[in-house]
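Below is one record:
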Amino acid sequence: MRRALKQGGVPVARRQLLSEPAKVAVAVLAVGASVALVLLLTGLRRGMGEQVTTYLRHQPPVLVGQEGTRNFLSQTSVLPESDIAKVEGVPGVAEAAPVTQGYAMLALHGKHILTVLIGYEPGSFGGPWALAEGRDPRDGELVIDETLAEEHGLKVGSLLDVRGAQLLIVGLSSGTSGFMTPLAFTTRTTANQLNDQPKTATFLLVKPQPGVAPATLISRVDVAVPGVSALSRETLAAHDRAAFVGAFSEPLTAMTTIAASVAILVIATTIYSATRDRSREYATLKAIGLTRAGLLRLVGLQSGVLAVAGTALGVGFAIAGVRAVAAVAPKYLIALTARDAIAMTIAAVVFALVAGLVPARYLANLDPATAFQR
């Protein structure tokens, strides 16, 4: 017994924790709920950024737009078809695929749904990268996001009014829900007719030849083709995130900060109270030979166990929350990462140790008889 006490042994820590299972369960639940809230808010913010850049993430590393272009989603860019051949002639370009991108407001069940309409060349890249049902569109046809279709009872074979034109839905795409603006795909000819801008493109999606770095190709295009701006996929994505997620960034950051502060307080209060509640037990252990270092190790071990268990439960809660959102409202993406879970675990353990060791140091310096009188 004395050897276990000197070492701050695990049996003592385990017995103390299991002696009051109700209190331990409440402590773990409190920590878990706080951790889950922080993870869900962090994942929601990241999910917004990923949805805004969904289309760009599936495209080649270089895009070419009209001179001065900075964004993909909110930039007015019009390129003449003559620029396609000019860009394809730049050394290092393997292929340049034109796309016509713009917004289309859909009237569905009394609601106006804003979509991003992508017109691309059949047989080339730039169209839907994954079809849940149906086929790629031809002129006068449309592929829409499967989540949008499910929400509004649309299916393959339905007609949809797009800017006054009746387009036949021939496919449903997956992974294209976007953020507030789901993606829809048609041919570039159809998109240009809807825009009343024939023989134009909004962007060129450029594939570099093997061994040619995107930065090198960007410089070559900017020099060789006047009136255009070549940008990396990552640059455009960053600008789109800033433009579209920026409006929600401050409120979400404030909410996440508040949630993190609450989590810290809950963890600290829970562990602090748990340690103070065992002051008589610690005094007894000290009276029968537990050293000051052993007491600190014992409290640190118990605090760490509660923090890790609470964080693990919180991660489980967060995963369940993500699945629930995906089932109930699939158009919203909550992107959880292992890095977030690890960061929360480390933070929880640190704050738990601090909260537990503060009263433990006081008890370690306290005479056992005095502790029994408190």
Q: What stands out?
A: Confidence is low (pLDDT under 50) at residues 1-9. Residues 80 and 304 are 64 Å apart (CA to CA).
